[in-house]
Write a structure and sequence with these properties.
10 helices, Rna Polymerase Sigma Factor, Chain: A, single chain, Arc Repressor Mutant, subunit A, mainly alpha, 75% helix
Length: 195
Amino acid sequence: MRQPPEIINLSNRSPARRAFEEVAVEYLDALYRTALRYVRGDAAAAEDLVQDTLIKALDAWPTLRQPQRAKAWLFRILSRLHLNRLRYAARHPETAAADIDEAELDQALAAWTPGADPESLAIGEAGLQRLQAELDALPGAWSQAFWLIEVEGFSYREVADLLGIAEGTIASRLHRARTALRQRLTGEREHRQVS
């Protein structure tokens, strides 16, 4: 006769483990949204990136000195892992190219839509898709700064710490991203009005 699966007793978790789980659950959606942006819409890669982030964070949780900065700490881990993967892909292009399934990527991009926040509703679905396309067309560093500040709500200082670069560089990248987006979006609107 088959034995029933062993029931995991969640009450035996340490207080530190419970604290980590609370923080992880609180920021899971934001981590996933950001990972999805980093990997340009590849849902499977975003899930892998978030999973690896949480594994590393769980291992390092006891070393976190300022729990009130857990969000920035988690995003720093996410960003570092993403950068490491980009470096690996650059060194091993044949492996990276073989891993891309274009149809799956197109499907993930088509299926992804952000939550129904007031800004998204005001822009409308077509405008939002256009904004996402233009954001994807920006250089990665500009897009990253724009996403972390404008969407995830980090401060300039937090993003600078997260990415390990100067606060002025973050301000410059954000300014360039905003300017490029404004030019692309208003330029298209003006082109439509002339036609």
